[in-house]
Inverse folding.
């Protein structure tokens, strides 16, 4: 695992975007196409803004997979991750393909199987992820399922996760936040060749400490990234502030 710390969210986002672009360009040069996993949330703003401005990427030779989505939330809702990804990636760079998770599907389990079949046929070059305030990876809240081999699963969202969504301004009250989501599984994320984990902000400091300094455990879902050989975690001074040593 490679850990990098920056003075600001802007520097962090630019560095992660530069590294991401290099992976994407190399994949296109070597195999003719790049397969990517995109996360959402406030932590990804600076990174995605910098990523879509990177030079020398033929976006028509990229295919994206959606990391997670709320169950039952309309795409028109401000918190919809489909809306987020379309506004910040799909409608900006027009990739060759974008596999969205339909949280409004009548049968969420069937939707998991549908997107699972799509991603299982691809070798993913890089996943862009974050870490939740409760340590979650995608929407795999603690205790996360480290064992399932299903690419996507329906998960119950814990209260800490749901409160984070209010704190980020996506919802006005806890009652508005969905209780379930469709999430890429831990094992599917770990199948990715490269993982770039973008984690700014003071509110993530305890989760970062638990991820890097606690035992690898379903109670600290993102800690599993320490078992992935090609993970880079991008921190700012705030998110790194509780670590035992300066990185």
């Amino acid at each position: 695992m490679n850990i990098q710390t920056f003075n600001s969210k802007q520097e962090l986002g630019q560095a992660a975007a530069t590294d991401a672009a290099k992976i994407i360009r190399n994949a296109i040069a070597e195999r003719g196409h790049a397969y990517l996993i995109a996360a959402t949330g406030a932590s990804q703003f600076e990174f995605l803004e910098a990523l879509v401005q990177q030079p020398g990427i033929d976006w028509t030779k990229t295919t994206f997979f959606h990391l997670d989505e709320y169950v039952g939330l309309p795409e028109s809702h401000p918190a919809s991750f489909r809306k987020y990804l379309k506004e910040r990636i799909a409608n900006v760079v027009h990739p060759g393909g974008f596999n969205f998770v339909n949280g409004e599907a009548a049968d969420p389990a069937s939707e998991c199987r549908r997107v699972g079949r799509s991603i299982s046929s691809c070798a993913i070059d890089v996943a862009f992820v974050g870490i939740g305030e409760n340590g979650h990876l995608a929407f795999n809240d603690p205790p996360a399922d480290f064992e399932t081999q299903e690419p996507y699963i329906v998960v119950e969202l814990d209260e800490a996760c749901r409160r984070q969504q209010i704190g980020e301004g996506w919802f006005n009250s806890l009652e508005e936040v969905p209780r379930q989501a469709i999430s890429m599984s831990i094992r599917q994320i770990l199948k990715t060749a490269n993982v770039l984990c973008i984690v700014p902000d003071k509110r993530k400091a305890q989760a970062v400490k638990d991820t890097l300094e606690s035992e690898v455990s379903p109670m600290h879902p993102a800690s599993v990234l320490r078992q992935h050989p090609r993970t880079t975690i991008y921190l700012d001074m705030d998110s790194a502030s509780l670590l035992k040593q300066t990185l």
User: Anything to note?
Assistant: The chain has one domain: 2-236.
